[in-house]
Write a structure and sequence with these properties.
Elements lengths: L1 H8 L4 E3 L5 E3 H13 L4 H4 L8 H19 L1 H4 L8 H13 L10 E8 L7 H4 E2 L4 E10 L5 E8 L7
Antiparallel strand pairs: 1-2, 3-5, 4-5, 5-6
């Protein structure tokens, strides 16, 4: 499925990094997926990606992430009128009401997610979640009946201002 994902995302054949190293597009995408799948250190990824050095792994991952964001950020940062127009919102509300919800104007459900992160070197108290007992970022999403996330807000914390 990786070639399909690369095609859908429009991943180029290769990325040229800041220090002029060249990394294949598929390899950079796989580096990014590995890094995002579960918290892992770049040093843990060295064997998997041909003994590439940590700085190259980091730059390739960031390059792939920047490319995907630049090409597709509008899908999550702009109002999507095709799924959130008044007509479809009414269809969502009707469907939820038909399933037994007492409200007639509810079109989605709020979901709060706590995503653990590595302990930061500075400002640890800002991102520490006492309830879950981990350093984390909090996100809030609104899920609609068709399974999509209609709105995503975050990260949320006490204050993300550095000291």
């Amino acid at each position: 499925d990786l070639p399909i994902l690369a095609g859908v995302l429009g991943i180029p054949d290769e990325f040229t990094l800041e220090q002029r190293s060249v990394v294949g597009g598929m390899e950079a995408m796989c580096m990014l997926l590995k890094r995002l799948a579960y918290p892992c250190r770049y040093s843990d990824m060295m064997k998997r990606f041909g003994q590439r050095q940590v700085p190259v792994l980091c730059m390739a991952t960031n390059c792939a992430l920047d490319y995907i964001y630049d090409a597709h950020h509008h899908r999550i940062t702009e109002w999507n009128d095709s799924i959130l127009n008044p007509g479809t919102l009414q269809i969502y509300a009707d469907h939820i009401h038909e399933m037994g919800a007492p409200l007639e104007n509810c079109f989605g459900f709020v979901d709060g997610t706590v995503r653990p992160i590595d302990r930061p070197g500075r400002n640890q108290r800002i991102v520490y979640n006492g309830h879950k007992r981990v350093h984390s970022l909090k996100y809030q999403a609104v899920a609609i009946p068709n399974g999509l996330i209609a709105n995503l807000y975050g990260p949320v914390g006490k204050s993300l201002i550095t000291e």
